[in-house]
Each structure stands twice: as C-alpha cells, then as structure tokens.
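Standup notes
- DV: blocked on the single-chain target, sequence here:
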Amino acid sequence: MIKVSIAAALVLAGILAGLLAGPGSALAQGDGRVDPPQSDNVKYAWADVLRVDPLYEYAQISNPREECYEAPGDQRGSDQRGPDNRAGGTVLGAIVGGVLGNTLGKGDGRRAATVAGAVVGGAVGNNIASNNDQRYSGTETRCRVVRDRAQERRITGYDVQYRYRGDVYLSRLDYDPGERMRVRISVTPAE
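- DV (later): unblocked, structure below
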C-alpha cells in the first residue's frame, strides 16, 4: 500500500486538473481578469513598475448661480402697504353715477340716464382715484444669473515605465497599474 501525504495529493490533483483542462483553457489572474487562451508563442508574466506619470488635460467649466442685489426704484400707488385703489374708485363712481342718473331720468329715458350716469360716474371715479396715487421711492430686489468660469484639470491617462527581465519599457495606459503589472510576451521569428 502506497502512503501519500495530503500535500502531495493536492499537488498531484492540481497537475491532473491542468492536464485535463488542456493548453487552450483560460487562466484566472489575481485581480479577476481572465487571460485569453495561450498560443504556443504567447505567455503572460509580471513586470516591476518603475514610474507612473499622470497625463492631464484642462477643461473649461461653467457653473451658473443667481446673484441678487437691492436697487433703488420709484413706484406708483396709493400707499406702500395697501393695494391700488383705482378699481375701487371706478366701481364707487359707477354706482353713484347710476343712482344719480336714475333719479334725474323720467319715464322711458330713466334707463338710459342710469346707464349713462354709471359710465360717466365710473370714469370720474377712476380719474379721481388715479390722481390720489402717489409716487414713492424704495428699494427692490433684482436678481440675475451669473456664470462662474473655471478650469478643471482631469487625468486622461498614464505614462508607465516598467522593467521586465532587465529591460526598461514605456507604455501609455488609461489606468494606474500600481507596483506590478501583467505583461504579454509574444515571440515571433525575425525576418
């Protein structure tokens, strides 16, 4: 009977699993990415990152905001605290004129005199009320939209210098690879 240690059995199981999977199977990397199937002349390895230089671009940004201020202004009205009384004067004048026209009119002309008195009375009441309006000075709040412009610096990529087997290489990437990065090694005959 052959005695095999647990560690040896695990190693043997790993080798058998690799052989059964075949050379075209995908290899999982430590960061969750999966290597594509390897051909006979391609392999993946690790390179040491020597330097990472971020690349920047400047963009103009515009932020709208509302700016309010107090400005002096003349206003017309009967009183700063009360509403405009021109409508009230018009209605009161029409009522008084209608009553007066009704009183003065006789027979069939009474209706026409009432209507004429109401129209004339309304016009007179409106005129009297508008003459009582006063101008007053005060301040009013005025607002406008102002756009603040600024420049914003954004990272667009990284120039990465790395070493693989003693040779130094430079690549432009769209991410910062950290201290080590995966490299793809491909060997082809020189012509």
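- Follow-up: Residues 18-30, 78-82 have pLDDT under 50 and may be disordered.
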